[in-house]
Amino acid sequence: MNKVLKNSWALFLGMGCIMMAYGFQGSLLGVRAVQEEFSLTSTGFMMSGYFIGYFLGAATIPNIISRVGHIRVFAAFASLASLVILVHSILINPFIWFLLRVLTGISMVCIYTVAESWLNDRSSNKNRGSVLSIYMVILYGTMGIGMFLLNFSSPKNFQPFILVSVITSAALIPILLTKKKPPNFKKIKIMKLKELYYASPFGVVSSFFYGTIQSALFTLLAVYATSMNFSILEISIVTFLLAVSGSIAQFPVGKISDRYDRRKVIVFSTFGAAIFSIISIFVSGQMYLPGSLATSKTWFYISFILFSFCSLPIFSLILAHTNDYISKEKFVTAGAGLQFIFGLGAISGPFLCSIFMDMVGSNGFFIFLFFFHSVIGIFGIYRMKIRQTVDNPDSQFVAMPQTITPAGIELNPTTEHIEEPYSEKVKEILERKGVKYKKEQQKI
């Protein structure tokens, strides 16, 4: 573990800054949109731009990295993300913000792909699991910290936007000063969707609907909290609880799914999230009763933590479930296919959720979450009735962030064996002697 941190600290530090800025930016834009009196539909439309950009960037980034290289791509798109957030504070319009969110989505998927392919290149079979765990903790931890920066200054001021830009730009420093050579980028193909659906219909369908849920959850939570008259500090607490509690839940839920039918765990988890969505509606209503009848927001925080515990591990569960029905050498391509489907669902999530909120009020946010979680659970029950569980010894649960790219999926220690790399000293000796070697990975 210490060796992993020692040799990859620059990359981890850079990604920590990026995710801190990303967490701050998401909450900042949501609160500012409400303060600027954007309609809920306009806000949902604007927020969906990020996922359109993410989807477009995922399709084009492999070619860009292959032509230009990792460091230049990271520097270019981190700079673009830093520039874009400043424009938000100058041009305040839902459609312009939508276009800016598209650029942010493109930038973020490029940054994720560079970071994850770099980490994968520095990993070996012995430490891939450790690298992925550290990476995930840094992603969720720094994103949660970034959400508290919402208290830095009023979202109506320009200072918070400058701070996001400063933090994003700071991420460039450790990356550009690293001595490590960038890796050779390997393009990862996506399994044909027809083949993927045949292997796991439940995996494909649930991945699509879960993408819809996740995109709405992370982009419109701050909008919901603002519309419910939460203070800036209370909004920070709610968004922080989402990021941290969901990541903590990944490991115990994953252990359970390795012992029991994974589909049952997904069904129980998604119905649990649906139930706590409804409970959150009732608890939030109790907060505004007159006088002594009103309850503390603590109960809302508790119900939301339980919702996050049930909801956030589901993508990793879906990935592990799909792997149950395919061979080990297809784990990465299948994961790339599921991420593609997840992205398709994510594009519509914020816009659809905003329509729910526009129709029934702020609590339409939780009604939306209840509805789509229930859809996943009902389809899961249907699939369990027509298909038997398969025992695949190669497949096991591995916690992964929802932002994972195909390059990052290779960090899963259960994927196909990677040829052990030469150490840097051995490679130098071989090069001096004129001996050719096959470079698969750089050893950490």
Structure overview:
With 444 residues, this protein is mainly α. It has a single domain (2-428), classed as MFS general substrate transporter like domains (Growth Hormone, Chain: A, Up-down Bundle). Helix content is 74%, strand content 0%. The chain contains 17 helices and no strands. The protein has helices at residues 2-35, 40-68, 70-90, 94-121, 128-148, 159-170, 172-176, 193-199, 201-227, 232-259, 262-286, 298-311, 314-323, 331-360, 364-386, 406-409, 424-432. The protein is globular. The N and C termini lie close together (10 Å).
CATH topology: Growth Hormone, Chain: A
Helix/strand-derived class?
Answer: mainly alpha
Instruction: Report the mean per-residue pLDDT as an integer.
Output: 82
Helix content: over 70%
CATH class designation = Mainly Alpha
Order of helices and strands: HHHHHHHHHHHHHHHHH
Radius of gyration, Cα only, in angstroms?
22 Å
Assign the CATH superfamily: MFS general substrate transporter like domains
Secondary structure topology:
Layout: H1 2-35, H2 40-68, H3 70-90, H4 94-121, H5 128-148, H6 159-170, H7 172-176, H8 193-199, H9 201-227, H10 232-259, H11 262-286, H12 298-311, H13 314-323, H14 331-360, H15 364-386, H16 406-409, H17 424-432
Comma- or semicolon-separated keywords:
mainly alpha, 17 helices, disordered C terminus, Growth Hormone, Chain: A, 444 residues
In brief:
This protein is an all-alpha fold. The chain has helices at residues 2-35, 40-68, 70-90, 94-121, 128-148, 159-170, 172-176, 193-199, 201-227, 232-259, 262-286, 298-311, 314-323, 331-360, 364-386, 406-409, 424-432. It has a single domain, classed as Growth Hormone, Chain: A.
